[in-house]
Amino acid sequence: QVQLIESGGGLVQAGGSLSLSCAASGPTFSTYFLGWFRQAPGNEREFVAVISWSGSDTNYADSVKGRFTISRDNAKNTVYLQMTSLKPEDTAVYYCAAGVGDYSVPVVLDSTQYNYWGQGTQVTVSS
After folding, report:
1. How, if at all, do strands 121-126 and 10-13 pair?
2. Is residue 84 a contact partner of residue 67, using CB atoms and an 8 Å limit?
3. Which of 10, 74, 112, 115 has the fewest beta carbons under 10 Å from its own?
4. What CA–CA distance (Å, rounded) separates 28 from 69?
5. pLDDT tens, 65-81?
């Protein structure tokens, strides 16, 4: 069983930066692929970024590529999402999630492939 707790959300002006963290409990954290998803009001939850258990593989949504960076520290049981050049359309509740199994695309882009979810953290980007 893995429990995920996000932190770092808040209000930022367009063009600014924000860093999210997701701390996990559980002895097998390093075996999970970890993803970030987001959901804006009235929208479906969408994929943002994912990282493999070793950190050697990452994938990003086209909308955030070049602006967001996902990383993980297995020694600290934490996954990060560094967000730069933020836009108002990045406003959403951001969720981290953990999944079991092989890292393969497009499987890891699919929210239904994740076994554990955090409670979410709000990110608001003002124009």
Report:
1. parallel
2. yes
3. 112
4. 23
5. 999 999 999 999 999 99
Q: Which residues contact 41 (CB under 8 A, 6 or more apart)?
A: none
Cα→Cα distances 114→10, 42, 47, 104, Å: 25, 22, 11, 13
Q: Which residue(s) pair with 24 in the sheet?
A: 4
Collapse the DSSP code of 107 into the 3-class scheme (helix H, G, I; strand E, B; otherwise coil) and give the result.
helix
Q: Evaluate if residue 2 carries a pLDDT over 90.
A: no
Cβ neighbours of residue 107 closer than 8 Å, sequence gap 6 or more: 101, 113
CA distances from 126 to 10, 19, 87 (A): 11, 16, 8
| Residue 3: C-alpha distances to residues 9, 23, 36 (Å) | 18, 8, 15
Size (the chain), residues: 127
Round to whole Å and give the CA distance between 127 and 111: 29
Report the candidate in 17, 48, 22 with the shortest Cα–Cα distance to residue 125: 17
- pLDDT category of residue 4 using cuts at 50, 70 and 90: very high
